[in-house]
Amino acid sequence: MATLATYFAVFAENFSATSLLISVSVLSSVFLLRKFSRSDKSCNPFKEDARRPPEPLVIDKDARNKVLKKGAAFSVEKVPSDLDAIVIGSGPGGLTTADILRKSGKHGAGSGAAWETRRLSHTFGLKGLQFDCGIHYVGKMEDSSTVRVLLDQITEGQLQWASLDDDYDVAVLGEPDQMRWVPIRCGRQQYKQELLQHFPGEEQAIEMFLKKTKEVADGADILGVLKILPLWLCKVLVKTGIVHVLNSFFRYMSRSTKEVLDELTDNAGLKTVFAHNFGDHGVLPSKSGFALQASLAEHFRDGGYYPVGGASEIAFHIIPVIKKAGGAVLCRAPVSQILIDNDGRATGVRVQDKKVGEVDIHAPVIVSATGVYNTYHNLLPTEVAQNTGLGDVLKAVSQSCSCLSVFVGLRGTKEELGLKAQNIWLFAGNDMERLQEEYSSLTPEEASEADPPVLFISFPSAKDPSWEQRCSPERSTCTILNFSIPPAWFERWNDECVKHRSDEYQHLKQAIGQHMWEQTCRLFPELQDKVEFIEVATSISNNHYINVSHGEIYGLEHCRTRCSAEMALKLRPETPVPGLFLTGQDIFLTGFVGSVFSGVFTAGAVLERYVIQDLWNLCKKIKDKKTQ
């Protein structure tokens, strides 16, 4: 994010004298608030560079389980006696919040407890191979980038990243006998030149797309501004329309991706390529705001990255940092309720312990990283939840898409199988919206005999340079995602026991999964006879393993309503319940980086400090030191 000072120039160009005077007054108050209201209320969590030389990768299972599983198993004895904060959920947002609180020197040095360490940033094992649940690639991990500096600080520099291939994504268009492979290359010039080879008459459209995505993404800071400034001031910015004059971000968020792309070109194939990675937020171009797709495009403009050692390395390196200062990260103890006292304040959580039953744990600050839906419907007492305003959010915005996942174990190394560190986005045709709608309208039985129209195909073992060291030098993995699955196809089996569901359920998911694998083999025929096993997970698998209700993988749906300036006022870290805060992708944006930055915003709200400014200052200090 840029500093707010840059917005004065925008005002001067777009406002009348009266409006300019009002705007300067408003923004002046912002600076006064930033300078005097919050800066001295807590310690700077990013005062010093916390990095240390990276230690060797830990591959010993017992050592890892001591941090992630058995060693983190809940017991009353492990809960610190002087808790000042409790974080429910251990996704990137929750862990980031807990870590920054620890680093702040306030709230018991960030002492806290995070329950339920099974989220999309973790991994699982199948027959000796490791698979990631949700992190397939991340952008903006270049040295000294803001997000890289942040992650280096909360992991003390222990989390390492490997860059994907130059063509980190490939869009594959068309029927099997007419497939066109369009590499998505990192770098603006490389991206443009590659697309011109496939769409030679579309130079103007490509240049305009690049111009618009940069313009919009450069203004995305305004969304963060609405998360950290006082709510009354944010309401002024939104209700007066000032927020729409600051830059074009929210103006383009109100326009659909499809609408903007239709203005750029009539070429259906090129429009599909422009929006090829819509699955990263899960909203079709007709429903997503162009600002969301533009920000995603710019997020990966310089390429993709993968955590060395797999997604579990994220929690593996954050947890010890939290514990080092007296905090605790505990799992296998579901939180059933947020406790509210007679004054309406959040004072603790009720935990279901297998050994002793219900246990109440108290702290003056409660942070829910479990999502708006879970917090509203499952954790807060009904009468309290109804007064939070979250019910209005859930009426206006549904949950995000689900997916059906196929995990494949393969015989052979990445060299033998020709696997690359990239993602494949397969489209059965250029009209992705129609194809998606037609497929989703099928009955489950019809779908079991049909090819899905859109697939995401990835080879995690080829992305991780540590794979041969920590897993198997002679085996590889493939992950395939199908975003066209209505949760209703599988919800009838939701109450059946996991791993003991009916034959009908098994047949349906295996049939759909087999079609997905056959489509993959049309692209990579050399994999056909290299299969060791195929495992299929559905929306109700998500319900069980990542604790969601409708198989959703991105929290609230990232439609235009959810991403609007008006909704940004409702999806903030603070809640109307004193002592209760929210974090995670629901209060910012989808994905790993969105979740991580939500943790920065939430920690700032808890600490009553502009933590993001502390982070920017450290980034500048690190960059200045590198140039010396």
UniProtKB/TrEMBL annotation:
Keywords: FAD, Flavoprotein, Membrane, NAD, NADP, Signal, Transmembrane, Transmembrane helix
Species for this entry: Branchiostoma floridae
Descriptive protein name: All-trans-retinol 13,14-reductase-like
Residue spans crossing the bilayer: 15-33
Annotated gene: LOC118424619
A Gene Ontology molecular function term of the record: oxidoreductase activity
Cross-referenced SUPFAM superfamilies: FAD/NAD(P)-binding domain
Record family assignment: Belongs to the carotenoid/retinoid oxidoreductase family. CrtISO subfamily.
This protein's record includes keyword Signal: yes
